[in-house]
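Lecture notes, continued. The same structure-token format from the folding unit now serves as the input rather than the output. Read the line below as a description of shape only.
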């Protein structure tokens, strides 16, 4: 089994140096901005999140991902309301009205959203660091439904450090030399997001142009390999159903298409108690079962944690995957306790 795993890692190093994919996330439901730039500025506050993912724990060379994201609305006057002007001295549990004048009768205006996301990902000898800036326009369809169209762009830096790779049988000359290769590549992502207080549907395409780039030797700046940024396509949808004054259930799904890979999908179910505590589960096709937990501590901070139970052939050596997300809701004027459009 160890020989199989070693072979897997070596093939992964070689392939990832040529074809770059985006990191895997289990808590994209908590931060859909990770996969769709149209989410920029969807809430009434400045949404800041930082996340850490340790994939396939105790598996040497397995992926480690860190990110920081922030986005906010510009010109958004349809602020969250409970139907009457809220009490600013305490957090609001369930402000579900979407209105301009606190009674839901007026059609909400369009608004803009801007944001950024910084991601650092490491897998074995491979590193990938990216910075993207985003813009979105949120246009009213009705007085309760909006359609957002977003775009983000930036740069990615790819690297391969062959000094961290050891191969005894017929190694490539570049591996023997212990070379360090780097590449810098622009990227572009687009997306749409149709949403209300009770449902959402999103479609996005990430790194779908600027695909081909050249790795260069870090020491002598000579061209070594040709790399490819693999396009990713996402379709996600979900809805919010209140089953009592205290409990809400939120089923959702994600269908992901990565070029040169089979179609994959996630099925998720989340239960929320009094808009403060939540738990749920997710199934990633032929890959993992995921347990989800979270708490909205106040109108300022929220926490999320997930654990992936590996289902693939790596389960014999992996102790699963951990992911932690910390969120801040700055300038939360209406002191809402939980997000109103991303659940």
């Amino acid at each position: 089994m160890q020989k199989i795993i070693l072979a897997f890692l070596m093939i992964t190093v070689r392939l990832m140096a040529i074809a770059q994919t985006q990191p895997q996330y289990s808590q994209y439901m908590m931060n859909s901005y990770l996969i769709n730039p149209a989410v920029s500025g969807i809430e009434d506050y400045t949404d800041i999140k930082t996340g850490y993912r340790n994939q396939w724990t105790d598996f040497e060379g397995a992926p480690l991902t860190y990110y920081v994201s922030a986005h906010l609305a510009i010109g958004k006057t349809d602020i969250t309301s409970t139907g009457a002007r809220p009490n600013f001295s305490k957090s609001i549990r369930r402000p579900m009205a979407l209105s301009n004048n606190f009674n839901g009768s007026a059609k909400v205006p369009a608004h803009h959203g801007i944001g950024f996301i910084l991601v650092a990902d490491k897998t074995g000898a491979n590193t990938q660091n990216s910075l993207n800036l985003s813009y979105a326009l949120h246009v009213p369809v009705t007085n309760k439904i909006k359609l957002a169209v977003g775009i983000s762009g930036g740069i990615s830096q790819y690297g391969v450090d062959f000094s961290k790779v050891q191969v005894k049988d017929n190694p490539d000359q570049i591996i023997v030399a212990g070379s360090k290769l780097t590449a810098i590549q622009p990227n572009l992502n687009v997306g749409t997001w149709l949403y209300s207080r009770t449902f959402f549907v999103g479609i996005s395409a990430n790194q779908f142009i600027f695909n081909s780039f050249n790795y260069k030797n870090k020491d002598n700046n000579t061209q070594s390999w040709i790399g490819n940024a693999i396009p990713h396509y996402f379709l996600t949808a979900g809805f919010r159903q209140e089953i009592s004054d205290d409990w809400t259930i939120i089923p959702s799904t994600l269908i992901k298409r990565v070029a040169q890979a089979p179609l994959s999908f996630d099925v998720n179910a989340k239960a929320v108690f009094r808009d403060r505590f939540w738990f749920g589960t997710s199934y990633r096709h032929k890959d993992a079962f995921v347990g989800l937990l979270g708490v909205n501590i106040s109108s300022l901070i929220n926490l999320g944690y997930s654990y992936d139970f590996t289902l693939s052939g790596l389960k014999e050596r992996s102790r699963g995957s951990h992911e932690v997300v910390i969120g801040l809701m700055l300038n939360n004027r209406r002191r809402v306790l939980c997000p109103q459009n991303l659940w």
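Point for the exam: Helices lie at 2-18, 173-176.
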